[in-house]
Design goal:
globular; alpha/beta; 251 residues
C-alpha cells in the first residue's frame, strides 16, 4: 500500500473516503505538516495503491496499514476511512487516539439507528456502478458537497482530485460501497478506551451529525466538534477549523 509521509512531530495517519485517495487531504496536510508526521494512506484500489493486492476489507486494511505506520499513532479516518480507523481501534491495534471525520460506525439507517442513510441510496449507487460508474461517482461527489456553505468550491476540488492519481479500480468501488452498506461497528464503542474525537459538518447530507453525537454517547472518553456551515468534507472548506480541533487532542 502506498503511504506518503510528510512533516514532523507526533504520528497522525490519514485515511480517505470512498473513491478518493490521500491527495484529497492536501489543504489539511498543509496546515498540519509542521506539527505532525503525517502518514497519508492510499487505500487498496485507489491512487498509488491501485494495484495493491490487499483486499478492501476492514480487517485486512487495518492490519496492512498498522504494519507500515508507527505503533501508537493517532488514526484519522474520513467517511469510509473512518470505518477502517475505528476497526483498528477496536481490534487491539495500538491506536493512540482516534479521529472520526464525518464518519460513523453505521452508515445505513436501521430500526435502532435512525440517523443513518437510506439503504435505497446505496442500492442506487451499486446499480449505477454497473451501468455508468463515472456518472455515479459524479453524483456521489455532488452529494458530498451538497449543503456546504462553499458547495461549488468543494465539488470542484473533489472533481479535480478524483482521478488525479489515476482511476480507482471499479471492483474496489463496489467493495467500498458494500463496506459502507453492511458495516455496523456500534457494539464495540463502549469498550473503546483511547481518546476519540468525532468531527462533523453541520450541513453534511451523508453523515448526519446526530449520528456522530449518538456514537459519542456510546463511547467512553469521546468528544465531538461540529463545524458550522461545513458539509461532508470540512477539511476542504474549513481546514483551519479541522486542524484546530485536531490540535486539541492529547499528544
Amino acid at each position: 500500500m502506498f503511504i506518503d509521509r510528510i512533516g514532523h512531530g507526533p504520528d497522525l495517519v490519514l485515511l480517505h473516503g470512498w473513491a478518493m485517495h490521500g491527495g484529497v487531504f492536501a489543504p489539511l496536510v498543509e496546515r498540519l505538516r509542521d506539527h505532525y508526521t503525517l502518514h497519508v494512506v492510499d487505500l487498496p484500489g485507489h491512487g498509488g495503491s491501485r494495484d495493491s493486492e490487499v483486499p478492501l476489507r476492514l480487517e485486512t486494511c487495518a492490519a496492512a496499514i498498522a504494519e507500515q505506520v508507527p505503533v501508537d499513532a493517532t488514526w484519522c479516518g474520513w467517511s469510509l476511512g473512518g470505518l477502517i480507523a475505528l476497526h483498528a481501534a477496536q481490534h487491539a491495534i495500538p491506536v493512540r487516539a482516534l479521529v472520526m471525520l464525518c464518519a460513523t460506525p453505521c452508515f445505513v439507517r436501521k430500526d435502532d439507528w435512525r440517523w443513518g442513510m437510506s439503504p435505497e441510496i446505496f442500492r442506487d449507487f451499486a446499480e449505477g456502478l454497473r451501468n455508468d460508474w463515472r456518472g455515479t461517482l459524479d453524483r456521489f461527489l455532488a452529494l458530498e458537497a451538497f449543503g456546504s456553505e462553499h458547495a461549488k468550491e468543494e465539488l470542484r476540488h473533489l472533481r479535480d482530485e478524483l482521478f488525479a492519481r489515476g482511476e480507482p479500480a471499479t471492483s474496489v468501488l463496489a467493495d467500498g460501497l458494500e463496506l459502507l452498506e453492511t458495516s455496523d461497528l456500534r457494539p464495540g464503542l463502549p469498550a473503546l478506551m483511547m481518546p476519540s474525537l468525532w468531527i462533523g459538518g453541520r450541513r453534511d447530507r451523508l453523515v448526519d451529525p446526530r449520528a456522530m453525537q449518538a456514537s459519542v454517547e456510546l463511547t467512553p472518553n469521546a468528544s465531538i466538534d461540529v463545524v458550522d456551515h461545513a458539509g461532508h468534507a470540512p477539511f476542504l472548506t474549513h481546514a483551519d477549523a479541522v486542524a484546530a480541533a485536531l490540535g486539541r487532542l492529547p499528544q
